[in-house]
Amino acid sequence: xxxxxxxxxxxxxxxxxxxxxxxxxxxxxxxxxxxxxxxxxxxxxxxxxxxxxxxxxxxxxxxxxxxxxxxxxxxxxxxxxxxxxxxxxxxxxxxxxxxxxxxxxxxxxxxxxxxxxxxxxxxxxxxxxxxxxxxxxxxxxxxxxxxxxxxxxxxxxxxxxxxxxxxxxxxxxxxxxxxxxxxxxxxxxxxxxxxxxxxxxxxxxxxxxxxxxxxxxxxxxxxxxxxxxxxxxxxxxxxxxxxxxxxxxxxxxxxxxxxxxxxxxxxxxxxxxxxxxxxxxxxxxxxxxxxxxxxxxxxxxxxxxxxxxxxxxxxxxxxxxxxxxxxxxxxxxxxxxxxxxxxxxxxxxxxxxxxxxxxxxxxxxxxxxxxxxxxxxxxxxxxxxxxxxxxxxxxxxxxxxxxxxxxxxxxxxxxxxxxxxxxxxxxxxxxxxxxxxxxxxxxxxxxxxxxxxxxxxxxxxxxxxxxxxxxxxxxxxxxxxxxxxxxxxxxxxxxxxxxxxxxxxxxxxxxxxxxxxxxxxxxxxxxxxxxxxxxxxxxxxxxxxxxxxxxxxxxxxx
Length: 558
Hints:
Layout (H helix, E strand, L loop, with lengths): L9 H5 L4 H12 L34 H5 L3 E4 L2 E7 L3 E9 L5 E3 L1 E5 L5 E3 L5 E3 L4 E8 L6 E9 L6 E10 L1 E2 L8 E13 L5 E20 L2 H14 L4 E4 L5 E3 L9 E3 L12 E5 L5 E10 L2 E4 L11 E11 L4 E4 L5 E9 L13 E2 L4 E2 L13 E4 L2 E4 L7 E4 L5 E10 L2 H14 L6 E4 L17 E5 L3 H4 L8 E5 L5 E11 L4 E6 L13 E10 L3 E8 L2 E10 L3
Parallel strand pairs: 2-10, 11-14
Antiparallel strand pairs: 1-3, 3-8, 4-7, 5-9, 6-8, 9-10, 12-13, 12-35, 13-22, 14-20, 15-20, 16-19, 17-18, 17-20, 18-19, 20-22, 21-22, 23-24, 25-28, 26-27, 28-36, 29-34, 30-33, 31-32, 31-34, 32-33, 34-36, 35-36
């Protein structure tokens, strides 16, 4: 048998995964299995195990993403918000065991559990490492108006304390059908800083408008009065589901119980994704539905319809609202009664997708293309902004803090179709109260043309009415609208006003009209820049799709 010495480095012996193979090799050689060679001679000696010197360092383990995300439980979401509950509402949450080992849940403790129903895995149960499960919670109509509940999953260790919080507010539908007319208001909030020369800095403080409704209801029996009394006793101070009667849609097809989609024309009406609506037939026959998504011809629901509805009925958007003034009513001895309500909507939005029919290329802002409804005449006010300094003992002084008069004018809109009413709502939202401006022609013959205007000419003559002497080129009235009988307009900026003689004045514009205009072809109007004089606007609804709106505009510097 050959003998020899095999030298092993400490690293080779202690390197993970190599020590065992080296030991086996040595044992085979020592046992006589290895073949002799010239490189091996002498007696074999085993040096195993080999000890090496160690090193010690003081320090801290740096936390990693592994520690932040794993070794705990995850709840998604940790707070379940039912929001406003007008119909049975279902929500889900997920429990994930982010440990790499199994965990045992010994109990599920439900605090204030009468407000909801929990569906899912019941305790005791075991969650495998990295396993996720889903739970469903349902808030019924019955229960407290406002509630906060919780679900505690007990995994037996303080560090594994898992708690889900549930909140919700139950509301009642105000199902009384209002009388017509009714008033809707939209109210923004704008801060305006005005300089002496009329320049303004306008700052929107509240972009999403407050929305409210004022209307009356009619009751024809003592029973209806008693129904209202009972509702007001509990809910007058609380939130209501308010049908938006100005947007109702007539529906005649049968809606079967269990339906998840309702075919209905949703255009020109305020149906919203994740919103609510009501299927309404009468004061006592209705059902509130939750909307998942809105399409042009249908509503996809978050939960199925509970009852079957046949015949004629209304599909009406629903908002959350509260009564913000006392309810005034007059009851007659024979059971007839009238009551007036004021509601303010709590979940309104700002519509920002208005597309005006005409804009002025000068700044891209809308141009009103239809004159006000005149009726008994248009109201206009010119305010010199006069301040009186008078100590009542002698001479007094009248002066103004502004360079220009404050000019205001009314404009009455009469919308007679649902599409017109909806487009006007979009227009009002685009103004954001007093923040944004529009261009409004005077719709009057402010200038009488005295000669043909060539298609490439930038100067034309009009009858002399003292424009150059009394107004001249200024920063308040420097734009014109050339209005054809069919309403078509050409809009231009004035660059000069000068007197030709006692009978004519010359007007210069920055860009030629591009068409020839003869005397009498068009109405030449001043085109002025206006904004609303008030952040609040009232809309008078005669019935659905039929409303009047009177706005007051104030002329501002251009």
